[in-house]
Task: structure prediction
Amino acid sequence: MAVREASHAGSWYTASGSQLSSQLDGWLNDVKTPVKGIGQASSSAVSEDTLPVPGARVIIAPHAGYSYSGPAAAWAYKSWDLSEAKRVFLLGPSHHFYLTNAALSKCAQYETPLGNLTIDRATTEELHKTGAFTYMAKDVDEDEHSLEMHLPYIYKMLSKTFSNSSSFPPLVPIMVGNTSATTERSLGHVLAPYLADPSNAFVVSSDFAHWGTRFRYTYYVDASGQARSLRGGEKDLKEPAIHESIRQVDFECIDACETGKHQAWLDVLGETGNTVCGRHPIGVVMAGIEEVVGGSQGVKGDGKFKFVRYERSSLVKKVADSSVSYASAYAVL
Result:
């Protein structure tokens, strides 16, 4: 069976295994306790002195080039509990290949500069038999960065938990397309038994707002609460500054995600149009968790995401500027 090449190594992140390992360790070491929640719900309820957070086997983390999002992603990975993991699911959006459902990998291994990760072929085939998933071609797999950018972090965290690479839990990569709300719920239903199983860990890959004319998203909320799209050539806005509006909209989405309600997530995205590139993988997992928690399947926590880090590539002051937002969260399940 084929090995998916680390096609973005050497550009989006270093191809040197030793340098990459050192970078990841540095970012992880920069995460200090207590880790506090930053969302409306989590800010008053979350202050973790123990990392990883017990039972936090589901995380959301960004997938940009490591010079941009590597430090922010560390906050999710430092919180991630792999103590019972026998399998790791990785869900990310499709940036280049159009599909309306979700796709699985045909590969046997995923390459990283730190070492290869084995794909769980049995679980992949089990999911494919449900009829809810297709297979992606190897070139489609290698073109997509949303999954690859998590592989070094996954390898690093597994190496901190398991004695050697031969004992690492296998990986189940899932690329989620431009799904409807109904499809998200259907995929969530298929994944619900896996989410309920404490031996399964999950990583959801997503950046948050992609703001700027180059992203075709210039949504702005003024001081009175009125929202509009800014046009090129408009004078600089200061009340509030554009970057403050971006933060406000991102936190509306963060707060909706922290409710644990899939519909609340859909509603805020519909209202703001926020360009959260992993909105569909997040929606799938939220729908699945909501089913698990609603069914009282003996889970350890409430399954609601707690956001613990928010960063941006830059602070936008002019309409001609642009930025991408990065957020990290965990859920105890």
